[in-house]
Amino acid sequence: MFTRRSRYLATRRFEPADDGTLPFAGVRARDIGSATPVLEHVLQPGERLDALGVHYFNDAWRWHRILDANADVLCAAELEIVGARPLPRATGADAPPAGDAVEEGQVLLIPRASEGGG
Predict the structure, then answer these.
(1) Which of 4, 7, 29, 111 is the most buried (most CB within 10 A)?
(2) Contact 64, 30 (CB under 8 A)
(3) What count of other Cβ atoms lies within 10 Å of the Cβ of residue 107?
(4) Does residue 8 come out as left (phi exceeding 0), alpha (psi in the -120 to 50 range) or beta?
(5) Domain housing 71
(6) Could you tell me which of 64, 76, 75, 69 has the C-alpha nearest to residue 41?
(7) Residue 74: partners with Cβ closer than 8 Å, 6 or more residues away
């Protein structure tokens, strides 16, 4: 069950197989909407995306707009405080490939709070 503010509320669920079982109990990946950038923000030590949501949108829950506008450099699975010691990573054959960490001084694009201009 999702909260009424969830971005996943309208996301399609997986279809049951012919025998009626669900292949996965969750939902499909959500479509990323438009997030046209209008500002640039240079990351500083200790910054977090929820704090940037408050700063730019007056709403900590809108951090995902920044994530959507920077999909080429940010990944929700790697949301760490800028400049903090990195989280431990899985190792071995099943580990995902290491990506570039978000670093101090990196420029993030800041979109409008919504594409309707609001």
Answers:
(1) 111
(2) no
(3) 11
(4) alpha
(5) 48-85+111-118
(6) 69
(7) 49, 66, 67, 102, 108
Q: Please report where in the chains the tokens 């996965």 appear, as a residue.
A: 24
Q: What would the two tokens of residue 102 be?
A: 């978000």
**Are residues 40 and 109 in contact, defined by beta-carbon separation less than 8 angstroms?**
yes
Sign of the four-CA dihedral 16, 21, 23, 26 = positive
User: How many independent structural domains does the chain possess?
Assistant: 1
DSSP H/E element including 51:
helix 49-57
β-sheet bridge partners, residue 42 = 107
Structure tokens at 33: 């909407």
The pLDDT tens digits of the residues spanning 45-88 come to 778 888 899 999 999 888 888 888 887 777 665 555 555 555 45
In a domain, 24, yes or no: no
What the block records as the tokens of 91 is 């190792």
How many Å is the Cα radius of gyration of the chain? 17
Distance CA 63, CA 49 (A): 5
Q: Does residue 78 sit within a domain?
A: yes
Tell me if 2 is assigned to some domain. no
